[in-house]
Amino acid sequence: MSEFYPAVAIAVVLNYAGVILVGIVVRVVKEFDKRSQTGSPLNPDVQTLTMDKFLDDIEREKPSRFTSQLLRIATDNFTHLLGQGGFGAVYKGIFSNGTLVAVKVLNGSSDKRIEEQFMAEVSTIGRIHHFNLVRLHGFCFEKHLRALVYEYMGNGSLDKFLFHSNKDLGFEKLHEIAVGTARGIAYLHEECQQRIVHYDIKPENILLDENFFPKVADFGLAKLCNRENTHITMTGGRGTPGYAAPEVWMRFPMTHKCDVYSFGMLLFEIIGRRRNLDINIQDSQDWFPRWVWKKFEPGELGEIMAVCGIEEKDKERAERIVKVALWCVQYMPEARPSMSFVVKMLEGAIEISRPSTNPFQHLMSDTPNPTAPVYDTSNGTYSTSAYDSDPSQTVTGTPIMKNHEIEIAST
Ligand SMILES: *[C@@H]1O[C@H](CO)[C@@H](O)[C@H](O)[C@H]1NC(C)=O
Ligand SMILES: *[C@@H]1O[C@H](CO)[C@@H](O)[C@H](O)[C@H]1NC(C)=O
Ligand SMILES: *[C@@H]1O[C@H](CO)[C@@H](O)[C@H](O)[C@H]1NC(C)=O
Ligand SMILES: *[C@@H]1O[C@H](CO)[C@@H](O)[C@H](O)[C@H]1NC(C)=O
Ligand SMILES: CC(=O)N[C@H]1CO[C@H](CO)[C@@H](O)[C@@H]1O
Fold first, then answer.
1. Where do the domains of the chain lie?
2. Is the CB of residue 376 below 6 angstroms from any atom belonging to ligand 4?
3. Contact 72 CB / ligand 1 (< 6 Å)
4. Tell me: the pLDDT tens digits for 123-164?
5. What percentage of the chain has pLDDT greater than the value 90?
6. Which option is the CATH number for 64-151: 3.30.930.10, 3.40.50.300, 3.30.200.20, 1.20.58.340?
7. What is the DSSP string of 284-343?
């Protein structure tokens, strides 16, 4: 019996060696496979496979065309309403493969309006991809259903967390959201083949995914601005009171710097966790951004921090946000920084020089300049009567721009 042991032992060893050998061979083959798939020039057939995969990925990334039937099923016949925008309602949907989507059903006063909106969104958002921009999965264009299908953002829009809830988001998270938002806008302004101006940056258009990662949404108002061409032509009104830059109201030439202004207003709201215009707050803070300047200028940052309830650990970050906000809302568009510079300043990658020019000078002057616009802090509108003797064109509520063309200088 005892002679058997060595034989058994050898057999066992051989067996293991075989397994190990097979293991090594499999690994080598796999490695070879991997190398050829990652573009080794050894095997042209494999390279074609790589190219096919690449093209498939591209194909998948471009917006798809969905049938109305598919969208009806995905949205349970449009039952779960997520929100209501100017151009229609947004519904939650889920595809059979589990992908969650937000379906915006376009509903305008006329087919022409709907088509304009449709083309604006598909041609702009459909072509761009960035972590901080909401993705367009696809669209439906049928007689009875014109809809846009976006990626679903689990936590809704930023306004809900800034103004209505019990401080679920800490200041650090809000700072991250500000940086992400700035990155998204910087991409639109500086990295797309054609510059895209958003025109309606506000908390309602900053969406948050399930991890509160921010993405800029609603390119409905966005228009392409060709950088080769220094001017583009635009028709129609845009912007939201309280966020729109002075030049938007005054029908002066507009550039991408109007987004920088709106972003600055958003930063003030992040600092204060309140609407800049809040008629319910009856105190000396009047219009919040101006109040911040009044405190910042004589160096009373501490009071801003105290009033806004900023904790000690967040003070440095908050101070950065205050300074950047004051730079962004400068009256002269040229004085406002570019969005990529804003990103760097918010991140603390560069020193922020002290804003020395009062952005609200035109609102504070004791001897009002008769040609200066009058900003009404109670409702966030600029009166432009000094520019416009035609009373039917005086700006109220939303900017009314007659259907005449405005020349927009793009830098
Ligand atoms: C959706 O509603 C229409 C009537 O409005 C009905 O005919 C159809 O069967 C419904 N579809 C689903 C998927 O519930
Ligand atoms: C899920 O289904 C939708 C609709 O059929 C499709 O567009 C999408 O690419 C699918 N997603 C994945 C991850 O397969
Ligand atoms: C579209 O708008 C009209 C009024 O303009 C309204 O009666 C209708 O219910 C809206 N449809 C949807 C799907 O929102
Ligand atoms: C804003 O307030 C001013 C003065 O109080 C008023 O003249 C103007 O019509 C208001 N605009 C809107 C849109 O309510
Ligand atoms: C505060 C809040 O609404 N948080 C939600 C964010 O999204 C995740 C995922 O959907 C939810 O689990 C949280 O409750």
1. 64-151, 159-407
2. yes
3. yes
4. 777 778 899 999 889 999 988 899 989 999 999 999 999 987
5. 41
6. 3.30.200.20
7. TT-SHHHHHHHHHTTT-HHHHHHHHT--GGGHHHHHHHHHHHHHHT-SSGGGSPPHHHHH
Domain 159-407: give its CATH code. 1.10.510.10
CA 74/CA 270 separation, integer angstroms: 35
Region for residue 167 given its phi and psi (left: phi exceeds 0; alpha: psi -120 to 50; beta: otherwise): left
Place 296 in a pLDDT band, splitting at 50, 70 and 90.
very high
Distance from residue 324's CA to the centre of ligand 2 (Å) = 41
What type of residue sits at position 262? S
pTM: 0.73
Lowest mean pLDDT among 24-28, 241-245, 258-262: 24-28
Mutate which of 161, 210, 213 to test ligand 5's pocket (most atoms within 8 Å of Cβ)? 210
Q: Any idea what the Cα angle at residue 161 is, between residues 159 and 164, rounded to 5°?
A: 80
Give the number of the atom of ligand 4 that is nearest the alpha carbon of residue 397: 13
User: Which residues 6+ apart lie within 8 Å of 317 measured at CB?
Assistant: 171, 172, 175, 348
Q: Which two tokens stand for residue 55?
A: 């093209």
